[in-house]
């Protein structure tokens, strides 16, 4: 119970007060009412996540932020009379009962109503009256109401609800023409026949079924005549989308020439195990490298491991003591046949070219602590043995944790290992202070050693911070990736241009997703937009269904899993319903104003990393986004398949013997 209480406080402080909920009555009520009582037992661990949850009868309990937003918008004051349409689990009525004098709530599903009554009685919330019926007609015998809240989307405002408002009363209701996506409206009764209306933004609710709402078959009910038909969002997407040819077609990358002027082109993926995402990024990268002078391919991969591939594609000898790379979970993320095609092509492309014109592969991530320490020491052994001896002493306190650096994070919470931060940072500073002397011997070798030293310093902080929880470890990791990209561009000169491969969660601007808005997280896409402005293109990739290579838990074996078809309330379903199987949707400003306005409504988007849990997909893999602000473009593959992992005896044609191994 203590854990749930802490989770409830965090929900209020982070998801509500940390955003735009300022009404003290609302915050206090949300802190008081136990949301776990209003969800099924199997969902209680997710009770204080800021997301909707299923409650039966095809209904959901609204996400806490939406509940708080609607109550705040209604301006409910102590002692007022409130009507709620759509009781559902009873949670919102319970919250309002902690503020209002009396709450009347209507639910059309009798089983849900019975459960809600039991919860009210168990909590001794005795100022709530509930009945089963058609909520679109209101509760005329209990009217007038100071506030009416409707937890279902209507095609238009039901006249009955307007009439049951007191003078000065507020009606908060989702209204929309397609039955799935709505605008949240606040209607204030200013006189016997006059009303004022405010638009509070885009929302997604189940449809309001009833005489003055939608009929059971999805059509407008008899009491709501149909206005002139507007284009649906899928229809608008189909009109705006640029169909893409097959991935084997030489013209596949033609539409992506529109991003060639950018200094950084960031290519995302909705999962780390989908073949089409790797193949598409390979074709786009080839075009940018071959025709437009891009010389940096930066990956969401560990720097030391990617450095071995860089030596290979740039025809440089491997390190004398090179160890097998990409051995850490998830091995299939970079050791797969689809990515190997890019490695083979880059090596062939670089053959015979001057070093400054060659395209290299570099890792942006920070996990391989042991490999980075080894690389720094090997470099110093060659160029400055005395400095190497000092470095070994300074890195000594990290030595026990090189193979399992996460253990270091746990240790520093109770032991005196904090001194390592000062030591590894001092080592980095001394290495950089001798930049000119070392770089004169071999600029590429120095860049590698310097970046490994930076990684050790950053990783020491990362593994320590990750055990405190919160967004700090994510933010440190993505900030490190951004700074690594900057170092690469600086090292290659002012004309250098980079292609970045990373997950959509890193590529899409976090400020326009649940990550940034609710959890306080940033990412490399956001940092690049803030730094490069129009000089960066953020390109997301998505899919509806198919198969994916993933694991059920961290360090589990990889499996080829079936991807569930996308949910009805998602970005992916809009794309699927467009009927276009492969397309590029340019989301740049001015492309399609009407579509842009519709896509600005927050919707769920699916994120599958190296872990996939289909049984809890809504809670584990969906987050709310605003697509046209998250990305500059969206690439769609309606059905996709899993990547083909490479085993230890099948490194792929032309691969260095150290890659890939260790499955």
From TrEMBL:
Species in which this protein is naturally found: Lysobacter zhanggongensis
InterPro entries named in the record: Emycin_Estase, Hydrolase/PRTase-associated, PCMT, SAM-dependent_MTases_sf
Catalytic reaction list: [protein]-L-isoaspartate + S-adenosyl-L-methionine = [protein]-L-isoaspartate alpha-methyl ester + S-adenosyl-L-homocysteine
EC number: 2.1.1.77
A molecular-function term among this protein's GO annotations: protein-L-isoaspartate (D-aspartate) O-methyltransferase activity
Active-site residues, Swiss-Prot/TrEMBL: 62
Family per similarity comment: Belongs to the methyltransferase superfamily. L-isoaspartyl/D-aspartyl protein methyltransferase family.
NCBIfam families: pimt, PRK00312.1
PROSITE patterns, sorted: PCMT (PS01279)
UniProt-listed GO biological process terms: methylation
Subcellular location as annotated: Cytoplasm
Record's protein name: Protein-L-isoaspartate O-methyltransferase
Keywords noted in UniProt: Cytoplasm, Methyltransferase, S-adenosyl-L-methionine, Transferase
Record CDD domains: AdoMet_MTases, Ere-like
Function of the protein: Catalyzes the methyl esterification of L-isoaspartyl residues in peptides and proteins that result from spontaneous decomposition of normal L-aspartyl and L-asparaginyl residues. It plays a role in the repair and/or degradation of damaged proteins.
Coiled-coil positions: none
